[in-house]
Amino acid sequence: MAGIAIVGLQWGDEGKGKITDFFSSKADCVVRYQGGNNAGHTVVVGEKSYKFHLIPSGVIQGKKVVIANGVVVCPKTLIEEIDMLHSHGIEPDLMVSDRAHVIMPYHRILDGAEEELLGKKKIGTTKRGIGPCYTDKIARYGIRMVDIIDEKRLKEKLDIVIPIKQRIFDSYGLGKIDEEKILREYVEYGKKLEKYVGDTIYFLNSIIDEKDIIFEGAQGFLLDIDYGTYPYTTSSNPVAGGICNGAGISPKKIERIIGVMKAYVTRVGMGAMPTEEKGGEGNHMAEKGHEYGTTTGRKRRCGWLDLVAAKYAVMVNDVDEIALTKLDVLDGLKKVKVCIGYEYDDDVIEKFPSAIDVLEKCRPVYEELDGWDGSCGKKKYEDLPANAKKYIDFISEWLNKPVGIISTGAGREDTILL
């Protein structure tokens, strides 16, 4: 059977939730392998819109869903999502890794304090404690799901961690940490979540040779801590290779990698974005594409499709095919631009720079194509406008990868398979 990876190729918000939901109908299990509740996926089914931050979007299809060890979990958010599903009459078949690290109250406070200290160089985080939680994980004094379901173990961990955090709080002037309050709060979370907690590594490896499993990434490749626009990145590895350490799966088990990208680009927060359009076309994309963050509500920065960045993402992830989303958002534009290179220091470069100060100085080299109208809601490739087809072909030829999926609207049914 197959392990299928669905990864974002841009700065997140590419529509991975819809693509995951679409493929979930034929899968047995959907796995989230990294990130935290700083990511948001929206799934539209009929008149209902479901917003997720932690639970894999395949839950709407009634599939087994797994939050793997590479995810950092906010217990309060997870419980709220479970309650939301219950309100819609859905009982999630959910398993949460006992090795997944837990976001604590002091993580959120430190996230905000560190952003303030960075001043003009702030990252633009969601201030949900994701980065500080991953920091504790690497520093080897993080708290995991296996700890919050055992009061004695949690107390022992807090006795070690709280004095360390209090010293940091004191240096920032952040006040006193109430260890007893945290203990009581997280013991209650543990009681509510205990039935969902288990060893996902053994579970996934026990079924992967017999079942179809989808691995769903959060954020996008250009926000990867190693490969993205560092330091303006997330704190984990959305790259397809992140599945191996984020879910405990051998790379030999991943048989198909689908790279998801919008027909344009968006970004939330700070950091270089060479093709950003702050004028009319950018506003067209933002309004028609409803480009407001699922998690933060912030308006996303919008711009033309960047094929330099896309080619880099396709290379590192070695995607088998591309899922092109939100093609319909470009409806009505007379001309559509595509970035095929960067001007830098009197040269034209086609490699994505590693240094953020270089990327900030890059200016896009555009190929201009004729626009179109009428792609919205189309369900067959032959029904697409001729110029929309030319646009798709241009992308496929430039990236040397097939465009196998095209999304022409928010609904599950507004999808073309090639």
Describe this structure in words.
With about 425 residues, the chain is an alpha/beta fold. The protein has two domains: about 5-90 and about 200-415, Alpha-Beta Complex (Adenylosuccinate Synthetase, Chain A, domain 3); about 100-195, Adenylosuccinate Synthetase, subunit A, domain 2 (Orthogonal Bundle). It has helices at about 15-25, 75-85, 105-120, 130-140, 145-150, 150-170, 180-195, 200-205, 240-245, 280-290, 305-315, 355-360, 385-400; strands spanning about 5-10, 30, 40-45, 50, 65, 70-75, 95, 100, 195-200, 215, 255-260, 265, 300-305, 305, 320-325, 335-345, 345-350, 365-370, 405, 415. It has a ten-stranded mixed β-sheet, with helices on both faces. Strands 14, 16, 17 and 18 form a four-stranded mixed β-sheet that branches. Strands 3-4 form a two-stranded antiparallel sheet. A hairpin with a 2-residue loop joins strand 16 (about 335-345) and strand 17. Helix 3 (about 105-120) crosses helix 4 (about 130-140). It is globular. About 50% of the residues are buried.
